[in-house]
Amino acid sequence: xxxxxxxxxxxxxxxxxxxxxxxxxxxxxxxxxxxxxxxxxxxxxxxxxxxxxxxxxxxxxxxxxxxxxxxxxxxxxxxxxxxxxxxxxxxxxxxxxxxxxxxxxxxxxxxxxxxxxxxxxxxxxxxxxxxxxxxxxxxxxxxxxxxxxxxxxxxxxxxxxxxxxxxxxxxxxxxxxxxxxxxxxxxxxxxxxxxxxxxxxxxxxxxxxxxxxxxxxxxxxxxxxxxxxxxxxxxxxxxxxxxxxxxxxxxxxxxxxxxxxxxxxxxxxxxxxxxxxxxxxxxxxxxxxxxxxxxxxxxxxxxxxxxxxxxxxxxxxxxxxxxxxxxxxxxxxxxxxxxxxxxxxxxxxxxxxxxxxxxxxxxxxxxxxxxxxxxxxxxxxxxxxxxxxxxxxxxxxxxxxxxxxxxxxxxxxxxxxxxxxxxxxxxxxxxxxxxxxxxxxxxxxxxxxxxxxxxxxxxxxxxxxxxxxxxxxxxxxxxxxxxxxxxxxxxxxxxxxxxxxxxxxxxxxxxxxxxxxxxxxxxxxxxxxxxxxxxxxxxxxxxxxxxxxxxxxxxxxxxxxxxxxxxxxxxxxxxxxxxxxxxxxxxxxxxxxxxxxxxxxxxxxxxxxxxxxxxxxxxxxxxxxxxxxxxxxxxxxxxxxxxxxxxxxxxxxxxxxxxxxxxxxxxxxxxxxxxxxxxxxxxxxxxxxxxxxxxxxxxxxxxxxxxxxxxxxxxxxxxxxxxxxxxxxxxxxxxxxxxxxxxxxxxxxxxxxxxxxxxxxxxxxxxxxxxxxxxxxxxxxxxxxxxxxxxxxxxxxxxxxxxxxxxxxxxxxxxxxxxxxxxxxxxxxxxxxxxxxxxxxxxxxxxxxxxxxxxxxxxxx
Length: 861
Description:
Blueprint: H1 5-12, E1 37-39, E2 43-50, E3 59-64, E4 70-74, E5 80-86, E6 89-96, E7 100-109, E8 112-119, E9 127-133, E10 143-149, E11 159-164, E12 170-174, E13 217-222, E14 230-236, E15 242-244, E16 250-254, E17 269-273, E18 301-304, E19 308-313, H2 321-324, E20 327-331, E21 336-345, E22 348-359, E23 373-378, E24 384-388, E25 396-402, H3 419-429, H4 439-444, H5 452-463, H6 471-476, H7 480-493, H8 499-506, H9 516-533, H10 538-548, H11 557-569, H12 575-585, H13 589-599, H14 608-616, H15 629-637, H16 648-660, H17 665-670, H18 672-676, H19 701-704, H20 717-726, E26 734-735, E27 738-739, H21 749-752, H22 755-763, E28 776-780, E29 785-793, E30 797-801, E31 810-813, E32 817-822, H23 838-850
Antiparallel strand pairs: 1-22, 2-25, 3-4, 4-5, 5-6, 7-8, 8-9, 9-10, 11-12, 12-13, 13-14, 15-16, 16-17, 17-18, 19-20, 20-21, 21-22, 23-24, 24-25, 26-27, 28-29, 28-32, 29-30, 30-31
Helix pairs in contact: 3-5, 5-7, 7-8, 7-9, 8-9, 9-11, 11-13, 12-13, 20-23
């Protein structure tokens, strides 16, 4: 079957699909001013420079060169701009003539400039790590070398910032789509990674990242010539930047997966301590790890919802002492710069945070100001400079300076507290990825440490040695904490032949006698063993069921989460019934989804009544389900109402389809009434009986852009709402908890984009397309083209959904594919608002800007 782009557009001309477009915003309506931003007490903000979009583009990275000049990286096809600033004024500005663009990361080391970027046309066009050198005396870089190509390195989930470590090696931040596993050395501190889930994971509800395997996001370490790459840490989602503190400890700000809102596998944006060999537990789809898994490390601070970009320590700033030591982290979506304050805790740190710079409109009912922060540096004048831009939004350069009365004398930023614990951890990390006959003896005693980071470092040091050197010792260990750590290592490295001995050793520590934290550790050892060494059968499975069954259900949600998986996996008696009872009593949506997820692939242990109750869950109205208080707090802090993520409806539908796949024909027949009662999650029907059939005008930017100031006052709420319904926006977009999931959530659109951005995304949807909503064009060897959303990507097959509003899918064998490239056309066709009058279009923009709030200033007189 041949399905081309034209056919897809024709299929979708009756819908509004902002998707790929609200990820696709362009320049701002008017100059943003520092007056629209707020800062911590004693600080003032100055607007330093406004980008010329046609010349400089949209700024996505910021650094400082060896002469204190600011370097501003921009998007694909856009230049690297160098700016000299004195007293907050630009005295010189130039666009560097370099054969690279899409500059995600910038690092200046003396007269050499490193960038993560794409080679321009005329060069090799590869995205990778480039080194630019000045060989002459004219202050221009005249030599550009590609040191290392990053496969799938471009884009928002590609290769990002570059930093020089205390070991004088380069550290590069990778998003979760970069292919690094086959590129790094066997001596990498982070290795031996897997999904490590007992029951099958489900892919993202929209197919985003489908098929991607660990390590997910990562940090790669290389020498200054781009050689000898090692995987230093992994399991992040999509950190954009990292920074080293005064003691050489690495920190980053990692992304959430906003599509997961409302699910138990949602993980908030987080500040993490990137130690050697760190595993932070991100996995695609439903396989994300909770923080308590002992084979991962917890966040230093969980921040909430947002979109992490740049980070920088305040060293060198003429700020009060508390801010000189702070890590400043940038949230692109909600326009916040936050100051993170660390306190040493053993071999790692705890942290608190506060808003440092934010739009005055962040809270309250005022019109939102986009402040799409991307990068920050401390200037030679002691001020913090930050840039805005991204997705073709208007770029600005701001300065934050301190004008208060507190002392700003430079301080010694080193931490004496915790120094001994960190030194011990570093000694253990010396063995990561290195075979050394002394490693096991040195590390073993520290498996019993009360410090989680010390235990972790010790285990990775032991795992780096041949299993034959430490297997017997692991099996014989009698100290509970040390035994659980050693057996976890054996589950990860010992192979299937070690499982029987491992289970026998683990049985020496009955779960009923352990405190909750060690219960969770033991359950995790069992999960990793089952995932890597196979599910036990016969007597081994029965013994696990007999030990764990009486503990289920537990008073602990976390323990129930792990017991549910394990007992279902070994077909424990009453595991299905107990899980169904927990599902029925769960008040929070996230708890319900957890049991629905695990039960979906189980085919034994059901009664007819339990089966009926399980499938009846999908027919219930879950709109009034509760959510964790912390989740609601994160939304409040971001200045927006709660809504489920864009992937939630897809998860609901996909999990149900998996569950139906376990039914026999007889069971399907018996369940026919309850199965037929299911209504797939979909947008509510338009309140209007018809859509607009008559074309009023083929609207262009030039027609409406001059009128955009009229959006801000005196608009008609009812007319905007009717325009929103008439154009069927909710067919593809969530607005609050209503709407589809093919496009992005519109509830807080004005927090991210200006009026002009929103208008352009509607009228010119293909100008810039976010990869989160971008289709893929798959060309087969016989010449056919299939365009649509990749919803599954396995070793042998790709499954495409051509129309996001229809369930039809096309399966293509990879052996039949000639090429697969991102589509250049947005799934949203043009002309979808041509049935609106001029005023209705302006009212629609007000309605979007207001988040559907009638009391918004746009509707005042």
